[in-house]
Amino acid sequence: MAIDLRSDTVTRPTDEMRRAMAAAQVGDDVYGEDMTINELEEKGAALMGKEAGLFVTSGTMGNLLSVLTVCQRGDEIIMEEQMHMFWYEVAGIAALAGVQIRTLPGIRGVVSVVALQAAIRSEDIHYPQTRMFCMENTHNRAGGTVMTREQMQDLSSAAKQAGLWVHTDGARIFNAAVFLGAEPRELAACTDSLTFCLSKGLAAPVGSLLVGPRDFILRARKYRKMLGGGMRQAGVLAAPGLIALDSMRLRLAEDHRNARKLAEGLARLGAEVDMDTVQTNIIRFQVPMAAGDFLRRLAARGVLANATGPDSIRFVTHYEVSQEDVDQVLAACGEILA
């Protein structure tokens, strides 16, 4: 079987998760009667120190719901220019919410407070209303880099002083917490609402949670129904999410160690790696050849990965990648880069 470093979304549910799916208590979630989903939403909200949670099919849905719930058509939201919400969510914020995104440059996914303050619209008949500020932690396109609690709090405070809602795409927020040695709720305290993913490094087969104030989640639940996300006996999907939150998040440091080992090995082999960005489970590096050629030769040696540019590659570690797999990947890369 290939060693798959394309993403941590490729993880398959564990045997324990499969058993939990078979045994899950279920009901009609549109009526609020699925006991397993209710438990997952309550547990996720409590972990993040929020009043309520909502089980959604994906982080993309959760992020869109946050915008639909807070904003009016014609509003503007502000975010860093490399955020997942801007690059990889099919312009749903524009197409479905009717909301304009204003992007700002950042350093490793973090904008400056000064830039944020300058971007907030003043009252003018010609301008849209600035309604929301968004952050991403960890930051995918920056290489899995982490925003500190202080950075999050400084930006959040500036946004709130201007009356903005603060939303965080926390797809990999547990990775950020592990890197910082913090509790997830400490980071979530810096944001009004937050999405986090169950099906990336936590290995559940599907789903994310949107958490926030109770009245916000009640409104978001109605928009979820509008988007076709009203699920029925979906406790079979929530059951592995409970295991993800109970145990899988506790082993993420292993993925970080494997990513660091990979990055250090790649640097020794001559790949260009910014080691300061290798903080969690993502490694972005450049090779002295076309990315497509590198990937084809890598696949021929039983390793799958993705390109992020003409000569740049991304590896992502996860629970199905062992230390022995890391050694095999480095051996394959060594043959290609020799």
Molecular structure report:
This protein has 338 residues and is an alpha/beta fold. The protein has two domains: 3-8 and 251-337, Aspartate Aminotransferase, domain 1 (Alpha-Beta Complex); 11-249, Aspartate Aminotransferase, domain 2 (3-Layer(aba) Sandwich), CATH 3.40.640. Helices cover 42% and strands 17% of the residues. The strands form three sheets. It has a seven-stranded mixed sheet, with helices on both faces. A four-stranded antiparallel sheet has the order 9-10-13-12, covered by helices on one side. Strands 1-11 form a two-stranded parallel ribbon. α1 packs across α11 (235-246), α2 packs parallel to α11 and α3 crosses α10 (214-226).
**What is the number of strand segments?**
13
**Residues in helices, as a percent range:** 40-55%
Q: Number of helical runs?
A: 14
Low-confidence segments, given as residue ranges, are none
Give the helix/strand layout.
Layout: E1 3-4, H1 15-23, H2 35-47, E2 52-56, H3 59-70, E3 76-80, H4 84-87, H5 92-95, E4 100-104, H6 113-119, E5 130-136, H7 149-161, E6 165-169, H8 173-180, H9 184-188, E7 193-197, E8 208-212, H10 214-226, H11 235-246, H12 252-269, E9 272-273, E10 282-286, H13 291-299, E11 303-304, E12 306-309, E13 312-316, H14 323-337
Parallel strand pairs: 1-11, 3-4, 3-5, 5-6, 6-7
Antiparallel strand pairs: 2-8, 7-8, 9-10, 10-13, 12-13
In short:
By secondary structure, the chain is an alpha/beta fold. It is 42% helix and 17% strand. The protein has a 7-stranded mixed β-sheet with strand order 2-8-7-6-5-3-4, with helices on both faces.
